[in-house]
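Suppose you are handed a protein chain with no further information: no name, no annotation, nothing but its sequence. What can you learn? This example shows the usual starting point.
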Amino acid sequence: MNFEKKAVLITGGARGIGRSIAERLHAGGANIAVVDVNVDAAKGTAAELSAKGVKCIGFECNVTKTDQCDAAIETTLKEFGKLDILINNAGITQDGLLIRMSDEQWDAVIAINLTGAFKMSRAAAKTMMKARSGAIVNIASVVALIGNPGQANYCSSKAGLLGLTKSTARELAPRGIRVNAVAPGFIQTAMTDKLTEEQRKALAAQIPLGKLGLPADVAATVAFLASDDAAYITGQCISICGGMAMA
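A reasonable first move is to predict its three-dimensional structure. Written in structure tokens, the prediction is:
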């Protein structure tokens, strides 16, 4: 898929799935703004991608802060002159059983995973509406569809993200802006690398395809939804979960 001359902003883009998405779109020719709360990691990822020949910038952004979200859009516009694609990937987990989960655990996950995506989408929509074009892809989770014990906050945040996707897709469609989501399942990341072999086998046993996915699997689907190949797709969620959730 060709992303030449496209301008992309990815939240939580320094590591894991976010970085894989950045690599995929950058390989297609896109100029990338990598934002993350870890500014050193953001700059490091940007430097590595820029060394491959297409412009990439990295800077700090806490998506819970409205002023930082607005500033991220402004910086992207200043550097690239436009914003074509927004990937809302920033997210955290703070797991715990419902009866033991604190208000702080609930609020922190909702603030980053859901409210952060709302704030970034709101800021991006203003410039995309003027251009009468754009694509937003939200990174949800398969647990938004099936639930998961010990993750009431995380599941709720990701389910809310699906509602945000559908509502904003309807609002922004008349201005030529598409909004979609993906719902990754168990993906091999630094977190899963810490699991024992027994734990990994237990996870794989829950997946019809019998294996964990790769960040590149998520990046490929995100790239499709962000591309012109998906020009007639909006308000949708594609599960990337090896069959854990089937419509």
